[in-house]
Design brief:
With about 120 residues, the protein is mainly beta. It contains one helix and eight strands.
Length: about 120
């Protein structure tokens, strides 16, 4: 997986889980008024969620890898994501930030990306 052309393995991370890429976007409102056409249907924005995992040699290496990823995410508003294993490429915004879960020298990072079309 790459974010803006940077492979996440450079931060010591691997993709553990990738959800939402097969889901269809939900409709914002149900059309109950007669006379609407297909072009009038409005959809919610599509979201993908990622769980990244890294096991490090020390807590210093863990902190360094996680901070490097956070710096990359904060560097721009819209990022280009490529998940080669699933054949998915899209641009999106990490709206809610990264939620880390750290246990000794292992980090699990969860974040959602709103797809920009």
């Amino acid at each position: 997986m790459t974010i803006d052309g940077v492979d996440i393995s450079t931060f010591g991370l691997i993709l553990s889980r990738f959800d939402g890429h097969l889901d269809q976007p939900a409709r914002k409102k149900i059309l109950s008024v007669p006379g609407f056409e297909a072009k009038d249907i409005v959809f919610e924005s599509k979201e993908h969620s990622f769980t990244l995992v890294g096991i490090y040699a020390s807590k210093v290496a863990l902190f360094s890898g996680v901070e490097a990823l956070k710096t990359l995410i904060k560097s721009a508003l819209v990022h280009n994501f490529v998940v080669a294993a699933h054949g998915v490429t899209f641009s999106g915004v990490v709206a809610e930030g990264i939620k880390p879960k750290v246990t000794n020298i292992m980090a699990e990072l969860y974040f959602k990306v709103k797809v920009v079309e």
